[in-house]
Amino acid sequence: MNTYFSKLENGFCAFTVKNIFANTLIRFTRVRILAAVLLVLCSSLSVFATPFGKIDAPPISERWFGIYVNSERVGFYRQLIDKSENGYRVEGSGSVRMKVMSFSKEASMRETYLVSKNLALRSFDVEQTVNGSSSHLIGKVSGSSIYIKSETNGKTTDSVLKFKGEVYPAPALNLYPLLRGVSAGTSYKVQAFDPEELKIKEIQITVIGLDKTTEGLPALKLRNNLYPFVNNDIWVDGQGNTLEESVREGLVITRVEQPGVIGAFISDWALAKKDLIYDFSLVRVQPPIKDPKKLTGLAVEISDWNDALPLLQEGGQHVEKRGNGKVLFKTGSLVQNLSELKSQKPLDAHLKAANKIESDAPEIKAQAKTLATGVKNQEELARVLASWTAEWLKDTIDDGGSAVESFKSKSGNCQTHARLYTALARAAGIPTRFVSGLVHLEGKGFLYHSWAESFIDDHWVSVDPTYNQLPADPTHLKLLEGHLPEDMAPIIAIIGRIKMTVVESAY
Questions:
Q1: Residue 278 within any structural domain of the chain
Q2: pLDDT tens across 260-277, in order?
């Protein structure tokens, strides 16, 4: 697989993938880097219970991978394979940010391949961004030709690639030997489609034999020459799941990871507004929201929802299932008359200090007391606290840390703002909780964001101390409650896959 990554805009959190690394060190000066790629077809992590041999079909499931350079995590990749009519559908997406010998590259990618039952390419749709330059390819195999439409920086071109026999997408290469039966020393020559160079390349895949991954898992070791002059070593299990890949003797490692582990990493980068995430996490919405600053209420349908996630009410929103993996969010004026707006009473925890939310710290208590001077009620106090937090903290893409740390440093991202406001509000006697979800970026779509909810006048009110909003505008869609990594990790269930449609807008 290839890896790419992109930047975020206007202080929002984001992410995405596809980059190829190390064709040879001499080629680092080129715009394109050959990278450690996961040529993966997904499934659950399992140690094979049967000897290596021929498999009848690729493993079907979803898998997540971390990408490392010199043991430092530089990106991630998600791949999903499922059955389709007369074959399989392979989807992949992710991001990478890489710097080697003063050469840096940011890249992101989304790709979909339809393949036959023997994994031969039938059609594809690939979007990729490399160092800010975006392209979109769609193509279809007909006979012995691939017909391609390519759009790069607004310019569209058509092209045709001729071939003989069968051609395969890169994600099929690791499975190719197992679908045909494996034995040590066997080599296969296959034709692979390269969507970055728009070429068909002849690739040799060699079965090295039984081995173990760097983490000690039993595996079958393969090697291919996808990248000239350097080894691309792959370890797969008995079902065909890729466990690990290594380019240039371990300089770049791609390793399968449990969703819970990589979920904490991805949610942190998405919610902390860091690079690497923008294209991956951006949720485009149709039709576009007009005059979002004048919006008083919003109803949106989200498709490809994961039913394992809770449907969180309160804070000015109502959520309901619509079937077929769809949920409906209503916010602002569109939910004012719904009985579901009745709020649950706050818990003791909503007034207590917590990890990184030190409402009992002397400086936090003193500042809350100062800001409360002359304030008449809790709603007015919450406004004062949110306004002060927005002004006190310089907005950055880096997390400023705990409430006390950011109080001293005067900087931080959306998570930092939410922590400091929550600590001040609790210190001032206002039950408050940290929440995260999606918020609208004008002209783009929705990105992941963190804010707070305070219990005022017997109901939960959304407060965004990053943008000094109380209540937060109707584009705030709450997905999660809690500020700990394990609270936010469930984002992995939907990030990079959900789609959004505007059902109703109120002004």
A1: no
A2: 777 777 776 676 555 556
